[in-house]
Specification:
By secondary structure, this protein is mostly beta strands. It has strands at 2-7, 10-13, 18-26, 33-39, 46-52, 58-60, 68-73, 78-83, 92-100, 103-106, 110-115.
Length: 116
């Protein structure tokens, strides 16, 4: 079982920045992916970014490339999502996600609202 606790959401003006954090605890395999999805208002959940925990390889949705950076702190079992140049279309509930041992785990979600 894996628990994910997110923090860092909030309200920001367009062009601003936010950093989301997700701390993982529990049992994970030695190699897994950890990342973020989001659900914009009235839309389906969509992929944002993920990182390979062991090797640090990163993957991004085209819509966020160049503006959002995912990173990890292996000592703290925490993944970060640094979001810059935010746009109103980035408004969504952001969910931390980890895939390990053949199972998907999700955080409770944190709201990010970008005002124009």
């Amino acid at each position: 079982q894996v628990q994910l606790v997110e923090s860092g959401g909030g309200l920001v003006q367009a062009g601003g920045s936010l950093r989301l954090s997700c701390a993982a605890s529990g049992r994970t395999s030695s190699s897994y992916h950890m990342g973020w999805f989001r659900r914009p208002p009235g839309k389906e959940r969509e992929f944002v970014a993920e990182i390979n925990w062991m090797f640090g390889d990163t993957y991004y949705a085209d819509s966020v490339k160049g503006r959002i950076t995912i990173s990890r702190d292996t000592a703290k079992n925490t993944v970060y999502l640094q979001m810059n140049s935010l746009k109103p279309e980035d408004t969504a509930v952001y969910y931390c996600h980890v895939y390990t041992g053949g199972t998907d785990y999700w955080g409770q979600g944190t709201q990010v609202t970008v005002s124009s």
